[in-house]
Specification:
Helix content is 36%, strand content 15%. By secondary structure, it is an alpha/beta fold. Strands 3-2-1-4-5 form a five-stranded mixed β-sheet. It contains six helices and five strands, in the order ββαβααββααα. Helix 1 packs across helix 4 and helix 2 (75-81) packs across helix 3 (83-96). The relative contact order is 0.22. The longest helix is centred in the C-terminal third of the chain and has 24 residues, at 131-154. The protein is globular and about 55 Å long.
């Protein structure tokens, strides 16, 4: 069972992102404040759960959370500021939308750009340690997947409904054959060196 809180006395928001390693599309982040007494033995790091389990847990999180929100940074912004900064910006945008102000931010990972004057705690593998970070990881992942499935209807050659724009062999073969879309991150190495295109 994951931990319910880091500090029992503070209003804590768990934060996580999805899509940092993708070749196309936005980075999504979520921020979630759960009740201190919330328990759920099924809730875990989104990467450890099946697609079906993530989508079953999403409405449970949304209904039981005190407040939750999604933040998005698109591929154009990612190319402008780099994907790490984009991940932090997406978290900031999610925190901005929370209906209750948190007193402590629990961040999945080892780095974060401070948000206003709210203290934060970076927790490596936090999505497998704290319920609110795990909840954020599930929301970020499922909302981003929804978006990529929609875009797969516009750009069917890239199989985004299956790979979610991660650098799979099939995705890279499609880039080689069809070139890039307006959603591709042009600062990323889209193809292995021996297959590079002139993407200018």
């Amino acid at each position: 069972m994951l931990k319910s809180y880091f500090d029992k006395l503070l209003i804590e928001a768990g934060c996580d992102e999805a899509g940092r390693g993708c070749l196309a599309g936005p980075v999504y982040a979520a921020s979630v404040i759960l009740p201190k007494n919330y328990k759920n033995k099924w809730l875990d790091d989104s990467k450890k759960l099946s697609d079906k389990d993530r989508y079953e847990l999403r409405p449970e999180i949304e209904q039981k959370a005190i407040t939750w929100a999604i933040g998005v940074v698109d591929n154009v912004e990612i190319d402008e500021i780099n994907v790490l900064k984009a991940s932090f910006l997406a978290m900031h945008r999610a925190i901005d939308k929370l209906k209750q102000k948190p007193e402590l931010l629990l961040i999945d990972g080892n780095r974060f750009t401070p948000y206003k004057k709210i203290p934060h705690q970076c927790i490596i593998k936090g999505d497998s340690k704290y319920l609110n970070i795990a909840a954020a990881s599930i929301l970020a992942k499922t909302y981003r997947d929804d978006y990529m499935k929609e875009q797969a209807l516009v750009y069917p050659q890239y199989s985004w409904e299956q790979n979610m724009a991660y650098p799979t062999k099939k995705h890279r073969e499609a880039i080689k054959q069809f070139g890039t879309t307006p959603l591709h991150r042009l600062t990323f190495q889209l193809l292995p060196r021996q297959l590079e295109l002139d993407l200018k």
